[in-house]
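thread: overnight batch results

M.L. [08:02]
morning all. the overnight job finished for the chain we discussed friday. pasting input first so we're all looking at the same thing
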Amino acid sequence: MSETNDATWLTQEAYDRLADELEYLLTIARADIAKRIQEAREEGDLKENGGYHAAKEEQGKIESRINRLEEILATAQVGEAPKAHGVVQQGLVISVELNGSEKKFLLGSAEISDEDIEVYSPDSPIGSAIIGKKIGEQLDVYLPNGKTIQVKILDVTNS
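M.L. [08:03]
and the structure it wrote out:
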């Protein structure tokens, strides 16, 4: 998380869905993968045991997701999206002009979107550059690949 955006905005529905996923991973998924690892260990030589290595890789993915969910839920700001007052902030749908092309996206965590709209993280280069900007503002955004793109804020809405 960035220093300016230490909270993740979530709807109550998204928060509950993520909490349920975390509960499942902590209880059922962890137990299942531990059992699979143990069964694979009992097959013998671990160097050439594909089942063991696949289970360990799966365990790593589960633990990574658990860590991510715990981080999101611990810093979550639960509630309705903020009201759009022409200022870019998390939880709002932003319309911008990127290098001459119009683009519309939700600014927030991917976990909050159940719609057919692209989600930009507030920690992404574009997301972090436009937070706090107002409709009509234009700015240059420097990308990790060294390129610069022009962004103009066209609209800020709740949906």
